[in-house]
Amino acid sequence: MAAEMRFAKSHEWIRPEADGLATVGISSYAVEALTDLVFMQLPAVGKKVKAGESIGEIESVKAVSDLYAPVSGEVVAVNTALPGQLETLGKDPYNAGWIVKIKPDDPAEMAGLLDRTAYEALVKSQSH
Amino acid sequence: MSHTLLQTPLVGWHESHGGRMVDFAGWRMPVQYASIVDEHLATRRAAGMFDVSHMGRLAIEGPGSAGWLESLLTRGVSGMPVGRCRYTLVTDESRILDDALVAREPDAADGTPRMSMVVNASNRARVVEWLKSRLPSAGVTLVDRTFDTAMIAVQGPLAMEIVGGLCPAADSLRIEALKNYQATSASVAGTPAAVSRTGYTGEDGVEVIVPAAAAAAVWEAIHAAGAPRGLMACGLGARDTLRLEAGMPLYGHELREDSDAFSLGLGLAINLEGRTFPGSGRFAAFRDRPAGRVRVGLTLDSKRSAREGHPVVQGDREVGVVTSGSFSPTLERAVAMAMVDRDVAAQGTAVDVLVRDARQAATVTPLPFYRRSHTEQKSPENIPWQQR
Q1: CA distance B47 to chain A (A)
Q2: Alpha-carbon distance B116 to nearest alpha carbon in chain A (angstroms)
Q3: Which of A74, B93, B142, B245 is most buried (most C-beta within 10 Å)?
Q4: Which residues of chain B are within 8 Å of residue A41 when distances are taken between CB atoms?
Q5: Which ipTM score applies to this complex?
Q6: Where are the domain boundaries for CATH 3.30.1360.120 in chain B?
């Protein structure tokens, strides 16, 4: 069974992996809305995060946006190649553009996030 | 949206071409169409076109018009020949209300002298109110033309030939012959227009004022002529990064009600020789007793931008504050303008900017960050940041 990707209202995606970890990135809608990305700050490996807490920031020419942890847990890996090639976020936001891997405190917490249909409805309502 | 935004005659074009519309000083304006960086670089390399119709356009006419404006502005304008534009501040007794471009327009058919002013959108209402409160009982009229005209800026190395190519030969030659801060009337894409060699990007180019009803047709004609040569429509985002690289102050950021214009590097916008204007005594004091912080450029070591309000520090000492900052598409790093203490204002001084909670190394850098390398034009204006 393919693990289902979930979305936070703040436009991060999270995907449970076979090894019990969860991969986190930002949605293609978020990348497109930000445009002109110039800088990204990632958290340190080992950082304990709570759901909704800032785990880094992404900056475009116009503005800075926080990256939020979709679930509580521990950051176990960060995509260190990403800040040097932010264009990856636009080209492949759901695979090569992954940002961090989190070991969730409670994997069931992901069920409280939006599924793809609900997220797409949110995006549609926000683009008006 | 809780209140109704003002719209320029070009709002339909912006919306149908992917413009991301935002509230800017009460106007519904495009901040960008696609990428700010692409729009910025198109302006530097080819041309950019900007809807600047939100800016206030005022017509001041009558036998006393030039003399009356002369009494209210920080620079003399009564002796300007037809076709001259001049950068000035608008002040009352205690504040700087705005910065503005004043032009001497061609006399009316009956010989009546005519002047014009372009003011910031954010200050238009209060500038109009202030000026009206000072109108003499006869001899001068003031009409706000913002809503029956539109203003299109075309900027960049190809701007002159793109606009010139849409004019009859004689008009095209007149436009080409304009020096910076000169204006002429011309027929642009078949529409009677006022064309000035002015702008806010650090590039060569023109600003074109046309009747509102013709704005969409003129815009489309310029876009159609320029796009195959690399021209892009640009939003307010690129306008801001371009003016930042060009070291140009923006009212509400660098320039404020209580600014010491001399410390800002705008001393040449103040003429105190044998003349007075509202608040001129304050400016004489600024001139005679330089004090307080001065405006400088900062180049950051990172791509992380300093933004307005971020503190500038040296060690534990706060030595200034950022007034504008962004990633510079030309320099590919973050740049900023800041007001800093005089003892750290020297070129090359190392400081830090507190960007959110992080300390970012920066170096005091001469303004402008960007100076175009194309043919230099002689200008009747002499304000250093407007060397173009």
Answers
A1: 20
A2: 33
A3: B245
A4: 304, 358
A5: 0.87
A6: 11-53+150-245
